[in-house]
Amino acid sequence: MQSSKTEKRYFVRVMIVGKESAGKTCLLRRLLKEDITDVSSTDGVDIVVRRCKINIEDGTWTIGKGIIDDKMTRIKRALFPNAEDRDTLSMQEDETNNMNIRQGDAKSTNDKNITTDTKLRQEEKEETIGSSSLAMPEESTNKALVNLDNEEITNESLSLVTPEDFTSDNNVNLDNTKKKNESSSLVMPKDVMSHVFSKSTVNAPLNLYALCELWDFAGQKEFYATHQAFLTSSAVYLVVADMKDDISKQGLGQCFADFQNIGEYVDFWFDSIHCHRTADKRARNVHFDPPILLVFTGKDKYNKEADLKKRKKELNDQLDQVLGYQSKYHHLHKKWYLSNLTDTDEEFVKLQHAIFESARKMDNWGNDFPLKWILLEHLIEINKDDGKNIINLNDMFKLAKHHDINILEKDELLLFLRLQHILGNIIFFENIPDLIILKPQWLADAFRCLVSDRIDDSSLHHLEDWTLFTRQGKISESLITELFESKDGSQFSGQKKQFT
User: Fold this and answer.
1) Among the three residues 326, 360, 394, which one is the final residue of a domain in this structure?
2) Residue 219 is assigned to a structural domain of this protein
3) Are 340 and 459 members of one domain?
4) Judgement on whether residues 464 and 351 belong to the same structural domain of the protein
5) Strand pairing partners for 294?
6) CA 252 distance to own-chain centroid
């Protein structure tokens, strides 16, 4: 591999939001062609990963369990755009693997030959796939590498992590290694490239796919504040509403005046998404990002075509009245009227394609990113698999400095982390760099313990603290402990201070 190589990155992140009992979870299951007979109300946020991928040529969804992000295939595609070249590489890999097996058989008989064979394998590997270090040119780390959220990112715009976090020679300042997440517990194979290739089980497919994640957000008002930790500018939003509910309230002020029912108002969700817009001014005939598909469910309640047509007109008129002449209205790409109960799969395939069309029109579709970032993604994944839920920035920098990756500049690391946050792979906020959430579902589960509407407050011992929490949003460590225990969330106890 050459240090200047990049890959084009395609991903689809679908955020399903709306009022309680509007049919969000049923909609998600219908998109994935799953049964909906046992659906229950979502408690918190459910993140569906590795269940589907989308062909970037025609928008066709492939659905199944265990769909992987095959990093070896991504590397091959970037290095060898032509399928013939990839086939040649696969043949060379097979020959190298066979040689390694023969060399492994000789291991028990001659230690001297082992040293020689190891050197030969390394030379062959370098001839086959080039240098595995993927070191970026020095000059490329001192300027903007990518364009995220439609902003030109420079060193100056990434100054939230102070210089004190790093030493003068760009090594990690290890004064903080006494923290709970010790660097020594990190999983780091000596040869990341070989580890990536050894984990791959498939050959490079002819068609290029975008992995698709679906996030199902609870509709109970208790969770609205926690949703903000997960919303992003780089997702397609499905705002779900029941057709029988009027879009009646106008203005966010009126919504908050009736906060008990705030989730019923489409206006509230448009405002929440508009906060994550990627531009303040809309170009001519161009929608704002992130895009919104407004999905009205419950179509089956209108048996007569005339009644359905009348109701659609009423909702369209109400929508124009509430959102008309406001910039947030330009997030709306299309409206859908569906029945989760009676519509055929074909109707949901149409919605699948609409999601794809909205995603591929976004500014982040097919952006170029450094190829070596794939290796750091791999290190994060194997540490997730090892059971790590959170790490600090020092630990992340230690992973990034692996000799196969060789990220030595904090600016490039921050760019990488920001992309991973946008993709939904991690939760990272630059103003709290020492709390990097490796598993977003872990944070969602922690929030579920603290703010779920399914908490029986009559059984709590710290009722005074509970009252303070529900009325003023202030929470004590003792109440956190009790809430975690009541929801079987003891795994979060070590991070109590981060939740206060």
Assistant:
1) 360
2) yes
3) no
4) no
5) 239, 335
6) 28
Assigned domain for 143 exists: no
Final residue of a structural domain among 322, 345, 360: 360
- pLDDT over threshold 50, residue 250: no
pTM comes to: 0.74
CA dihedral 400, 190, 69, 334 (to 10 degrees): 0
Q: What is the mean pLDDT of the chain?
A: 75
Span 183-217, pLDDT tens digits: 448 999 988 888 887 776 655 555 689 999 999 98
pLDDT digits 0-9 by tens, 336-364: 999 999 999 999 999 999 999 999 999 88
In 10 A of CB 221, how many CB atoms?
Answer: 16
Pick from 137-146, 365-374, 476-485: least confident: 137-146
CATH of the domain at 244: 3.40.50.300
| DSSP codes, 50-88 | EEEEEETTT--EEE-TT----HHHHHHHHH--SHHHHHH
Which domain does 481 fall in, by range? 455-499
Q: Comparing 46 with 98, which gets the higher pLDDT?
A: 46
Query: Structural domain tally of the chain?
Result: 2
Q: Output the six-digit token pair for 304.
A: 């007569």
- Tell me the torsion sign for CA atoms 247, 252, 254, 258: positive
Rounded percentage of the chain residues whose pLDDT exceeds 70? 63
Check whether the bond before 81 is cis (ω within 30° of 0): no
Do 339 and 485 fall into the same domain? Answer: no
Does residue 54 fall inside a structural domain?
Answer: yes
CA terminus-to-terminus distance, the chain: 46
3-state secondary structure of 370: strand
Q: Are residues 338 and 482 in the same domain?
A: no
CA 459 – CA 17 distance, rounded (Å): 31
Residue 140 lies in a domain: no
- Residue 358 CA to residue 460 CA, distance in Å, equals 46
Q: Where are the alpha helices (DSSP H) in 146-234?
A: 192-199, 224-227
Residue 494, pLDDT above cutoff 60:
no
